[in-house]
Each structure stands twice: as C-alpha cells, then as structure tokens.
Amino acid sequence: MSNYLVTGGAGYVGSVVAQHLLEAGHAVTVLDNLSTGFRQAVPAGATFVEGDIRDAHRWLGAPPGSAGGTPTYDAVLHFAAFSQVGESVQQPEKYWTNNVGGTMELLAAMRTAGVRTLVFSSTAATYGEPINTPITETDPTAPTSPYGATKLAVDHMITGEAAAHGLAAVSLRYFNVAGAYGSHGERHDPESHLIPLVLQVAQGRRDAISVYGDDYPTPDGTCVRDYLHVADLAEAHLLALAAARPGEHLVCNLGNGNGFSVREVIETVRKVTGHPIPEVTAARRDGDPAVLVASARTAIDRLGWRPTRTDLADIIVDAWAFARATTSPDNPGPAGGTSQP
Prior knowledge:
alpha/beta
C-alpha cells in the first residue's frame, strides 16, 4: 500500500482519482481549500485537509495524524488549479498566483520533504490553436488564454525540477473530460462544459442550449471535440504513478481519439434522457478551433493505457445519472472522508 497526497481532490477529476486510489488499496489524503471544490466530493476513506497548496510545507513533512517528521507520502497527484478560460482572461493574476505560484511552493515543499514523484493535471489548452489533427505532444504549444499559459508554465517548471533535482514526473494533458463515476461527477458553479449544460436543459434548469457557430468546416457545421470518460482518465493517473522515472518529465495527451460535434452531443442527450433539447444558434466564440482531437499514442505506449468507455451515449448515461442525483452545488450529497484541521 502506498500513501498519496491529492491536491484539489475535492474537485471533479481529483475526487474520481482519489476514489480510484482508495479502491486500489492505497491511503489517500486530500488537500483542498474548497474555493472551487466541494467537501462532499471527498471520497469516504480519504483523510481531508482544508488547506492551500501555497502552504504545502505544512502537510508534506508528515501526513496529518502521523507520528513524526519522516515523509511518508510516496507521491503527489496535483489537481489544485483554477480552470475557467474566460475567467482567466478577466483575472489573469488569480491564475498566475494560484496555478504557477502555488505549484512552485508545492514543488519546493516536495523537494524539502523528499517526496520525489508527481503526477500533474495539465491540459490541451497548452496547445492553443491546433496545427495538426489529431494533436500530439510534439506539436507546438501556443496557449490562447492565461489559463493555458499557466499550465504550460507549470509543465516547464516540472521539466526543470526533474532535470535538476531528480523528480519523477508525468504531466497528463486532458482534452474534454465528461461522465461520472458513482457519486463523483461534474458540479462546477458556474458550469461551462457542454454535456452538463445540455443535461441542465433536460432537467428544466435551463431553457435552451446555445450552439456557438454552425458554419465550421465540419460535417454538421459545429465544433468537434474529443470526449474522455472521467474513469478512463483516472485509470491513466494510476498508471502514470507506476511509469514515473527519476529525472524524467513525461508528457502524455489523454483522449479517446474520436471527435463528436456539438450537435452530436445534443442529439445523444435527447436520446439518453428522452427530453427535447431546444437549441439557440449564436455567433462563434473567439478562439474556438473547429476540431480538437487527441492522439493518445504516447499514453498507450508509455503508460500501457487505453480508454475503454469511448461510446458517447455511455458517457452521457453516467453524467445523466449523476445530474439527477445532484440537485445543486449547495446540496451535492453526503460528505465523505475523515477531516483533519
């Protein structure tokens, strides 16, 4: 059994990964300041610490409740970041302070504590406007938002840490994560992701779904995106822990390799839920590429990972079950985990 610190583990992806770690028999401590995460999302069986990554030195010397100063975390899985593209344009300082400054403090605390393995939650936003489809890790990185820029800056920081100090690190660049895993699913407030927004229309919580542009060079004129089930994503993190090597920073794209258009998503939600989904066509949004699809070849080759939940309907079935069970961000279900001050 290993002992892992999961920063941002009260959020969507972090909570699912924490649950997978627990199911694999590991000990998990979740560190989250609850600025965007939810206490109720922390899995039962995990130790919960309400705190900030900028104070990571307080938690990395010895996990809460342990006997003394010997570092007992085997690795850190780092999800603690702000991730709203639009907000990052309006408040870039918030993103640089937390995403970059916070990770710098985390890396320093790991170095001092002797914790030498890191799996980092990166993003396809590091690529910006794609040059090729599908996107590979060797394609140019040119983020078009402060959010993407901060994630790329952290990737560069990790590369330097690995080379200079022997950190074993893997960055996983997600494309569009969707679906749910049991009681863990998307509960963003405000919500900006397509699938939960369309499900809100099915629930009667939203009048219609906006389709931003229907004149793209795609089969039905709407943007095409690569949707990856959150459980497949979580499994990649466990494989990344096993694949991390001292002194190496491995970067892997995670996607299912297939693209689904906005209209395909809407139509699939109609079929899954049995509800009509009114559409409103709006102008294109600045910076929205026509197609974003990942090549996951590196993850397949280096991690031994392969997504298995690639059917769009199956992804939406899980998301729909979670949406119906979760009435609002203020009432997301029973709390889990054991708290520590």
